[in-house]
Specification:
- The structure is a single chain.
- The chain is of the alpha+beta class.
- It folds into two domains: 53 residues; 98 residues, 2-Layer Sandwich (Alpha-Beta Plaits), CATH 3.30.70.
- Helices cover 27% and strands 35% of the residues.
- A hairpin with a 3-residue loop joins strand 1 and strand 2.
- The two termini are 41 Å apart.
- The relative contact order is 0.13.
């Protein structure tokens, strides 16, 4: 599905990027020349009439970008496993007594030992997509993995007690 994004120059202000939704609504990010930004909603009939705008600090913009990006990544992984026979997605909780708590993800050798891919880690409600081998796992992390049922079962055992 293609998404329509339009750029509108705003003389003396900056520019606006509009995402036009499938039902014709416009959600915009207005980028000011001074670095400020805001989210704006526009009238359904008049695309130049703003109905509301919300200024965002750097931290708020980063948090919103993370939330949207991470939720899309996880939904794409879940959709992939629903469409593919024999491929599963699973969340594995890393316990405090796991051999791999406070150790780099690469130490698990998960892909080599199980043919399973670790696609994300959920920590304290935040998603870390595509963690690299040097990413340090912590007790309480939820490891999001994709693979066969056999491979996921093997990874669960490795994560739980360090054995395969």
């Amino acid at each position: 599905m293609a998404v329509r994004v339009e750029k509108v120059d705003l003389p003396g202000i900056g520019f606006r990027h509009d995402v036009v939704t499938s039902n014709g609504r416009r959600i915009s990010v207005v980028s000011h020349r001074d670095g400020a930004r805001e989210i704006a909603l526009f009238d359904e009939i008049d695309p130049d009439a703003s109905t509301d705008s919300i200024p965002l600090s750097d931290q708020e913009a980063a948090a919103l970008a993370d939330l949207l990006g991470n939720s899309v990544s996880l939904s794409q992984v879940n959709a992939l496993s629903e469409e593919t026979v024999g491929l599963y997605t699973e969340h594995l909780l890393l316990s405090a007594d796991s051999t791999y708590a406070n150790r780099p993800l690469g130490d698990t050798k998960a892909r080599t030992r199980t043919s399973v891919s670790i696609v994300a880690v959920v920590r304290d409600g935040s998603v870390i997509p595509s963690p690299k081998p040097d990413f340090v796992l912590e007790a309480g992390d939820s490891i999001v993995a994709v693979g066969t049922r056999q491979g996921l079962d093997k990874l669960a055992k490795i994560i739980a007690d360090g054995t395969s």
